């Protein structure tokens, strides 16, 4: 009798706790290096979370010693070294899937918190730049490593990092590929909070997620959507967009609950209706 093949472990696992979903990078033996399967699953995961009415906030974290060491270069080595037109086209499609995996985070209506520990290298910076809020533990090392490997960062860092840390710092970090600390990341505004240990980091991420989840999910999703629209359009267009958005959804059960709770001097319980 032939032995059955071992079950393939997915690069991402999901843990749902109430209104919060933990998106866990699940390849600790390779420091959560990103493969093509990882890109495909990220697209699927965030589409599902966007559709899940019970989930209000997502937290991305890494299993093991690091958040992520970036792209798994060995898994893509064959495509990168091939010279045929078909191989080049396949590589282009892999890159586009990687881009979509990060765009899926932005397009997900639920806020996404990134809890970063250990290492956040190369493609990891692409990923965190797509998140709404970034937290890190003190020992974390960051690097936009691609220039040291002869590659142009192509999954979103070049497009998004300047808006987060400013154009001059983004250019220095991208052009040099230098390692930088969590303290530096905090100073630059890449992360908003830094914690002594990964344990305290994950606790803080959950506490922050709960604080967000306690608010009206319709309003939080609307705020994220309006901020995305603003980044992609003019301020005037965004002002008109949010006026229309509020006119369409302002009179809802969550607003009535907020007013009632205020009058009764209690904490509101929002249902997203």
Can you put this structure into words, describing what you see?
It is built from 11 helices and 9 strands. It is globular. Strands 1-2-3-4-6-9 form a 6-stranded mixed β-sheet, with helices on both faces. Strands 5-7-8 form a 3-stranded mixed β-sheet. With 273 residues, it is an alpha/beta fold. The N and C termini lie far apart (56 Å). The longest helix is centred in the middle third of the chain and has 23 residues, at 85-107. The protein has helices at residues 36-51, 73-81, 85-107, 123-129, 157-165, 167-176, 182-188, 198-213, 217-232, 235-249, 253-264; strands spanning 12-17, 20-25, 57-62, 112-116, 119-121, 133-137, 141-143, 179-181, 193-195. It folds into 2 domains: 12-213, 2-enoyl-CoA Hydratase, Chain A, domain 1; 217-264, no CATH class.
What overall form do the CA principal axes indicate? globular
Number of helical stretches of at least 4 residues: 11
Measured on Cα atoms, how large is the radius of gyration?
20 Å
DSSP, total strands: 9
State the CATH class of the largest domain. Alpha Beta
| CATH superfamily grouping of the largest domain | 2-enoyl-CoA Hydratase, Chain A, domain 1
Helix proportion of residues, in percent?
40-55%
* Strand residue percentage: 5-15%
Main sheet specs = 6 strands, mixed
Q: Strands of the largest sheet, in order across it?
A: 1-2-3-4-6-9
What class, by secondary structure content?
alpha/beta
Given as residue ranges, the uncertain stretches (5+ residues, pLDDT < 50) are 1-5
Mean pLDDT over the residues: 91
